[in-house]
Design a protein that fits this description.
It contains 5 helices and no strands. It is mostly helical. The chain has one domain.
Length: about 100
């Protein structure tokens, strides 16, 4: 997901790649479920948390520029990642150690 993309850019990209919104939504839900299943954000390495937060921000951006079910799903998965893997808890652990 690139900064500056709009709804038309997302729709054109998905069409060009022959990706159906419903298929992407189903995949994204499975991906989010697997990622968050048994997640332990408070014990994850800082690098992993930083990467997950970047992914979450991109998903939230997709949620803002996509439409319909894809927008809702992407935004929800992004927010769930941010809640489960907060950077502040990893940074606090590093200060204590």
């Amino acid at each position: 997901m690139n900064e500056g993309w709009g709804k038309g850019d997302v729709a054109e990209f998905l069409l060009a790649k022959r990706i159906k919104n419903g298929d992407l939504v189903a995949w994204l839900r499975r991906f989010g479920d697997r990622l968050l299943e048994g997640a332990h954000g408070d014990t994850a390495p800082r690098d992993a948390v930083v990467s997950l937060q970047e992914l979450a921000r991109r998903l939230e951006l997709l949620g803002r520029v996509a439409i319909g079910e894809l927008a809702e799903c992407a935004g929800n998965v992004g927010r769930e990642i941010l809640v489960e893997f907060p950077l502040s808890s990893v940074e606090e652990d590093e200060v204590v150690d």
